[in-house]
């Protein structure tokens, strides 16, 4: 149930590869996932129908965490108890992850990229790991793979809840041999009360790593440091600070790309030159390399070659270039948290120093829609020259006092000398952006980056189409 979601669809593909007959249903069935599932021989029904589910009578029903009470199939399952049902994380724990050495990639930011990097490095170093990635990677070329039975399994470890009937974080199910704690901040305001609540679930994760396993910690992150001692397992600290075991040094970013050096215990591991943006992605790479190295050979993890990183192409919707020409660059980015937006904008400033930097932000995630981090979003967006704030998604589900206020954000930014605009709809934002494209494109090159974890009501594609017509 919910098979067309990225995670659910990829798990359905894993189950099909393992030899199971797989059927699914979703409220919206559309490409690309619908095409991928059809090519794998998986039948997908549009909409939810209790009578149909009863007739199909599968051995097991997997309920995605987007499902809630009131869904007709959910209600029938609960009333009849005629079929076994489980959550996606529980299914993975009982099947794909059972008996494997699992590398669980966690953190508020960078999970998808770091999971992709870890799987990519293991493959490029001659192994056949299994992996499950919560996005659309370019490297590896697919988002899921069973891998060899004796090989490690790399999985994106989400702190979000498992299902409407299991409010534990997904990653608690994943039996980590190596747990990667990339960073920790308050997020998912619909699930967690505050920062301490998020720290609690990360602390629970660290407690289930075996004594022959490893916890990899961002040693520069004070919120992770507050988790306290983890004396029951081995800790490897990764970051820029001098107290880290694995250090990122000599970091440089400019128009040609990024270069940095990794050291382990003071000894040089290797130098990386690549086109992937930002110090935050250098951290992701350091975490991924450390995890992959320990999975290959815990006695000599630096035997892992870093050379493949130069070929890493990234993940879709992470600083993804949608249009590039001399006078205009258009990007799409999944950023929906102040820290991620700020880091991306700072990186783009270094990468495109001659460009006027325009940020368009859609307050769509449950955290971004609320007022909890509004001041932090203001500080993050100040890193742009001009800001456009879209309409708050599902605004009617929150009171005016609870929800993010685009007008206040824009007026505050304007008082800080950052031009900022909003509109009643995302179509209105598009109209204003197109006006800027017409007026300001004569004043030098411009970079427009759209930040959203959704579709932004299709305005990204429309803006690109209009811009291509003006090129």
From TrEMBL:
Pfam families: Mur_ligase, Mur_ligase_C, Mur_ligase_M. Residues 1-95 form the Mur ligase N-terminal catalytic domain. The keyword Acyltransferase does not apply. One of its GO terms (biological process) is cell division. Residues 105-292 form the Mur ligase central domain. Keywords: ATP-binding, Cell cycle, Cell division, Cell shape, Cell wall biogenesis/degradation, Ligase, Nucleotide-binding, Peptidoglycan synthesis. Residues 317-425 form the Mur ligase C-terminal domain. One of its GO terms (molecular function) is acid-amino acid ligase activity. The keyword Ligase applies. It comes from the Bacteria. PANTHER family: UDP-N-ACETYLMURAMATE--L-ALANINE LIGASE-RELATED (PTHR43445), UDP-N-ACETYLMURAMATE--L-ALANYL-GAMMA-D-GLUTAMYL-MESO-2,6-DIAMINOHEPTANDIOATE LIGASE (PTHR43445:SF5). This is Mur ligase family protein. It comes from Synoicihabitans lomoniglobus.
């Amino acid at each position: 149930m919910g098979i067309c979601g990225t995670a659910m669809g990829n798990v359905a593909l894993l189950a099909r590869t393992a030899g199971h007959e797989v059927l699914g249903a979703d409220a919206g069935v559309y490409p690309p996932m619908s095409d991928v599932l059809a090519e794998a021989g998986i039948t997908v029904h549009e909409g939810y129908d209790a009578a149909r589910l009863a007739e199909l009578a599968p051995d097991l029903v997997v309920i995605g965490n987007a499902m809630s009470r009131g869904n007709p199939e959910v209600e029938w399952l609960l009333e009849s108890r005629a079929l076994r049902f489980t959550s996606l994380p529980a299914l993975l724990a009982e099947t794909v992850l059972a008996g494997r050495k699992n590398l669980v990639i966690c953190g508020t930011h960078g999970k998808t990229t770091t999971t992709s990097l870890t799987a990519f490095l293991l493959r490029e170093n001659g192994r056949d790991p299994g992996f499950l990635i919560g996005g659309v990677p370019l490297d590896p070329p697919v988002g899921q793979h069973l891998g060899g039975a004796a090989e490690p399994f790399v999985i994106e470890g989400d702190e979000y809840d498992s299902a409407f009937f299991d409010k534990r974080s997904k990653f608690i199910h994943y039996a980590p041999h190596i747990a990667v704690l990339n960073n920790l901040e308050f997020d998912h305001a619909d699930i967690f009360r505050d920062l301490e609540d998020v720290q609690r679930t990360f602390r629970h994760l660290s407690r289930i790593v075996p004594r022959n396993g490893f916890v990899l910690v961002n040693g520069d992150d004070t919120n992770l440091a507050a988790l306290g001692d983890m004396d029951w397992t081995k800790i490897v600290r990764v970051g820029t600070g001098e107290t880290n075991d694995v250090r990122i040094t000599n970091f440089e970013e400019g128009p040609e790309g990024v270069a940095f050096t990794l050291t382990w215990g003071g000894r040089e591991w290797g130098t990386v030159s690549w086109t992937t943006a930002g110090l935050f992605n250098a951290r992701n790479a350091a975490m991924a390399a450390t995890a992959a190295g320990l999975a290959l050979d815990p006695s000599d993890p630096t035997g892992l070659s870093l050379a493949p990183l130069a070929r890493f192409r990234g993940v879709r919707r992470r600083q993804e270039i949608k249009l590039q020409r001399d006078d205009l660059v258009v990007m799409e980015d999944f950023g929906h948290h102040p820290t991620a937006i700020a880091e991306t904008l700072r990186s783009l400033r270094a990468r495109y120093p001659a460009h006027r930097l325009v940020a368009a932000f859609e307050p769509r995630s449950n955290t971004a829609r609320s007022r909890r981090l509004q001041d932090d979003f203001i500080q993050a967006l100040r890193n742009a020259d001009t800001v456009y704030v879209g309409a708050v998604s599902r605004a009617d589900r929150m009171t005016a006092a609870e929800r993010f206020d685009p007008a206040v954000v824009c007026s505050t930014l304007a008082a800080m000398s950052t031009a900022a605009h909003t509109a009643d709809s995302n179509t209105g934002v598009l109209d204003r952006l197109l006006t800027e494209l017409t007026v300001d494109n004569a004043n030098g090159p411009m970079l427009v980056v759209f930040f959203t974890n959704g579709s932004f009501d299709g305005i990204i594609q429309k803006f690109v189409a209009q811009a291509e017509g003006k090129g």
